[in-house]
TrEMBL record:
Domain Response regulatory: start-end pairs: 3-120
InterPro entries cross-referenced by the UniProt entry: CheY-like_superfamily, Homeodomain-like_sf, HptR, HTH_AraC, HTH_AraC-typ_CS, Sig_transdc_resp-reg_receiver, Tscrpt_reg_AraC-type_HTH
Alphabetized UniProt keyword annotations: Cytoplasm, DNA-binding, Phosphoprotein, Transcription, Transcription regulation, Two-component regulatory system
Phosphoprotein listed as a keyword: yes
Chief place of localization: cytoplasm
Record protein name field: Response regulator
Domain HTH araC/xylS-type: 153-251
PANTHER family associated with the record: HISTIDINE KINASE-RELATED, TRANSCRIPTIONAL REGULATORY PROTEIN HPTR
Record organism: Paenibacillus baimaensis
């Protein structure tokens, strides 16, 4: 089931989009809503939705700016943009940044939305089949202890100590009193990884350790490493290891590495 975030400042429009489509029959599940781009960005960092249906003109951060920020973070979520007739320049920019489609609000109906969802479902399926949802190489978080840059090293130490808690790019930027966009670019330059991937790698490394060395349930392990939702934990674990947590544990046991008793 592909996950969806709805981003629209007009509550009526947001509720209409959510109500007019039988999401599950098309293979989608709406996991969240946001009223502006800033709110959406924090959610996207934490939950990595497969699809974002996003209004173009919004307060604080418009839809194109949100799409650009998501791409800078190297998050591959698909975007369907909602636009008015006067938004064409924004639509063009959104398509340049890789938006999958756009829908005019005035002509939006069940069929137009379903057509757009079917197109995205095909794109996501092809992406999954080609393995593009899995990071191309494993991030060695143990060798990133000293980059030679004080603020980046401070962020790494903070994430290693607090990865079990909710962390966002905004929180990290505030921790070192720097701009979000600048610290994101700097972190990538010094470590070769973006901030969100690094954080997920820390969590997945700990999850692997717990799967190997304990009898904790999958749900307990997910919560322990910072994922409140079981399905989301399983999705991220598979993205980084190409295995489900249960599959990883089974493979470990087949190798004779019997986990120790919990506690």
């Amino acid at each position: 089931m592909w996950t969806v975030l709805l981003v629209e400042d007009e509550v009526f429009v947001r509720e209409s989009v959510r109500r007019i489509v039988d999401w599950q029959s098309l293979g989608f599940n709406v996991i969240g809503e946001a009223g502006n781009g800033e709110e959406a960005l924090g959610f996207i960092e934490q939950h990595l939705p497969d699809l974002i249906i996003c209004d173009i003109l919004m307060p604080k951060m418009n839809g194109v700016e949100l799409l650009q920020r998501v791409r800078e973070l190297e998050i591959g979520s698909r975007f369907i943009m909602l636009s008015c007739l006067s938004d064409f320049d924004y639509v063009r920019k959104a398509l340049e940044y890789g938006a999958s489609n756009y829908i005019l609000k005035l002509s939006m109906n069940v069929q137009s939305l379903m057509d757009a969802l079917v197109k995205v479902e095909v794109e996501l399926s092809k992406q999954q089949a080609s393995g593009l949802s899995i990071p191309p190489s494993r991030i060695d978080t143990q060798q990133q202890a000293d980059t030679g840059h004080r603020e980046v090293d401070k962020l790494i130490s903070y994430m290693k100590e607090n990865f079990r808690s909710m962390i966002s790019l905004r929180m990290l930027a505030e921790h070192v009193s720097m701009d979000e966009k600048y610290i994101s670019t700097l972190f990538k330059k010094k470590t070769g990884s973006n901030v969100i991937q690094f954080l997920h790698q820390l969590r997945i490394d700990e999850a692997r350790r717990l799967l190997e060395q304990s009898n904790m349930t999958i749900s307990e392990i997910g919560t322990q490493v910072g994922y409140e939702n079981d399905n989301y934990f399983i999705k991220i674990f598979k993205r980084f290891t190409a295995l489900t947590p249960n599959g990883y544990r089974s493979r470990t046991r087949l190798r004779g590495e019997v986990p120790s008793v919990k506690g």
